[in-house]
Design a protein that fits this description.
- There is one protein chain.
- A five-stranded antiparallel sheet has the order 13-12-11-14-15. A four-stranded parallel sheet has the order 2-1-5-6, with helices on both faces.
- Helix content is about 30%, strand content about 30%.
- It folds into three domains: about 90 residues, Rossmann fold (3-Layer(aba) Sandwich), CATH 3.40.50; about 55 residues; about 100 residues, 2-Layer Sandwich (D-amino Acid Aminotransferase, Chain A, domain 1).
Length: about 290
């Protein structure tokens, strides 16, 4: 085998994604990569005897050449990188893209169009409505269309600000085509496919929430817009999501770090994991 790698999942997520994990390991083997499933619960990372350390099943272990982290834990990525392991996605991508506020802040530097967005903590929410109704409130760490609240009236806003649980949120205008969005799948610096997701029952278009999906052909202008984002980051594999404006224009929404490819597989023959393994091998060889 050329290289050895760890595929890191939580125990619960590994159980729910057995087919995907098997596919990942098989694609790695085709390119002479030994990829091993590692459960996050079996890893102990931290500072031991004044040094950055990692234990696997409470023992020192041989470290892999790389790790693909399929959990939301930027500090784990930082720790593995400190130990000399190539991490996909890297810690910078994991930290920025798993916090919606940080993602919008970073992408706004590029002049990418997006809906009006406010950043705020729950304890600082104003009693008056901050932007025109209706709007959505998103927890900064929410994923898969979850932890998203649609506010249509003053009563809903009043109920939300009285929630006892503290948290960080983004508040966004809904002046877009509701129930429709575009996910662009990216490996390294390459667009591998785009899927238009739609829902007639919900303002969210997520496939896992019952929405439909179809392959989408990006225009030259749309590709140029997306490549601005790609060139700003050092991606492994991500999904870049866009809302659709009333004139059909793309408005940046978010970047999915631990992205799944169920929709892309459902509407195309693209083998995104084969592309991802190829990207990992090329990165390892450049760094060696």
């Amino acid at each position: 085998m050329k290289y050895s790698g760890w595929l890191i999942y939580s125990k619960r997520d590994a159980h729910e994604n057995q087919a995907y994990i098997s596919w990942f390991i098989e694609e790695a083997a085709k390119q002479a990569i030994q990829l091993t499933l590692i459960l996050r619960e079996q890893l102990h990372v931290g500072i031991i005897h004044h040094k950055h350390s990692l234990l696997y099943e409470q023992k020192l272990t041989k470290l892999p050449d790389f790790a693909v982290i399929r959990t939301i834990e930027p500090l784990l990525s930082y720790q593995l990188e400190q130990l000399g392991i190539n991490v996909f996605n890297n810690s910078s991508v994991a930290e920025i893209c798993n916090h919606k506020g940080r993602t919008y802040f970073e992408v706004a530097k590029l002049g990418i169009p997006m809906v009006d967005t406010l950043f705020i903590k729950q304890e600082n929410l104003p009693s008056t409505i901050p932007i025109p109704l209706p709007f959505v409130i998103k927890e900064v760490a929410g994923r898969g269309g979850k932890q998203v609240y649609y506010v249509e009236c003053v009563e809903q806003w009043d109920a939300f600000i009285k929630q006892p649980t503290p948290g960080e949120y983004v508040i966004q205008s809904t002046d877009v085509q509701l129930g429709k969005d575009l996910r662009v799948f990216v490996v390294g610096n390459r667009i591998v496919g785009a899927v238009l997701r739609e829902s007639n029952q919900d303002f969210r278009a997520n496939y896992t929430l019952g929405g439909s999906a179809k392959l989408y052909e990006l225009s030259h202008e749309e590709q140029q817009l997306i490549h601005k984002i790609i060139q700003h980051f050092d991606f492994g594999m991500v999904g870049i999501d866009f809302l659709i404006g009333h004139e059909g224009q793309l408005l940046f929404n978010e970047i999915e770090d631990v992205v799944g490819s169920r929709t892309l597989s459902a509407v195309s023959n693209v083998n995104i994991l084969a592309d991802y393994i190829t990207h990992i091998v090329e990165k390892l060889e450049r760094d060696s």
